[in-house]
Design brief:
single chain, about 200 residues, alpha+beta, Glutamine Phosphoribosylpyrophosphate, subunit 1, domain 1, 6-stranded antiparallel beta sheet, 4-stranded antiparallel beta sheet, 4 helices
Length: about 200
């Protein structure tokens, strides 16, 4: 599976930013050993994309291209494209994946949306959420291996994230700490090779 965080950050001063952090352990479509360096997080136009679970590299690349070629769409329409394309190819590719998109609206408010395709929870698309850029804070959503200990790690992550001094480096370090703790707790599903991607809001992006 994986362990990942979707992080929305509004510093007391400076521009809002979004970040996705995951491990790098990918599932094998053939049922063999897992890929220990699987790419799961991508820059996709003016958005970030995470694709975890069982999906081919070709399908991940196709989803990146879809987002990059539809930069002007609102996040709910982008996620609809991701969901529909994945549903179309679910049986053909044996998809069992979670996809997440993070970006900003026109005012610079961070946004997140995600969906499941072929998972134990079925095929499900969730409504996007928009965070208020006027409120300095760091919000994080977890996706991945749901085992005992994750809740406790997230409580400690909240303690590590200093809401009064939010910076990309500080959030990246804290997210990396979380991923490494998860890899120690369930190494059969998660490794400690941390991937992060970040986007900072710029007007007109």
């Amino acid at each position: 599976m994986t362990a990942g965080l979707l992080l929305s950050a509004v510093p007391p001063k400076g521009a809002p930013f979004v970040m996705i952090a995951t491990d790098s352990k990918g599932a094998s479509l053939e049922g063999g050993p897992a890929d220990e360096k699987a790419q799961k997080v991508f820059n996709a136009g003016n958005a970030l994309l995470a694709v975890s679970g069982v999906a081919t590299d070709d399908h991940r690349s196709r989803l990146v291209d879809i987002l990059a070629s539809h930069k002007k769409l609102p996040i709910n329409e982008k996620m609809q494209l991701i969901f529909d394309k994945s549903l179309d190819r679910k049986k053909e590719l044996g998809l069992n994946m979670t996809a997440a998109v993070m970006q900003f609206d026109e005012s610079g408010n961070p946004q997140v949306a995600f969906c499941h395709v072929g998972t134990d929870e079925g095929d499900r698309q969730f409504d996007p959420h928009t965070f208020d850029r006027r409120v300095p804070e760091v919000n994080h959503a977890y996706f991945g291996e749901d085992k005992e200990g994750v809740i406790e790690f997230r409580k400690k992550l909240d303690e590590k994230l200093d809401k009064k001094a939010i910076t990309p480096d500080q959030v990246r370090e804290s997210a990396g700490w979380f991923i490494r703790r998860a890899s120690e707790a369930f190494p059969e599903a998660v490794n400690g090779r941390v991937q992060t991607k970040i986007k900072v809001f710029r007007p007109g992006m």
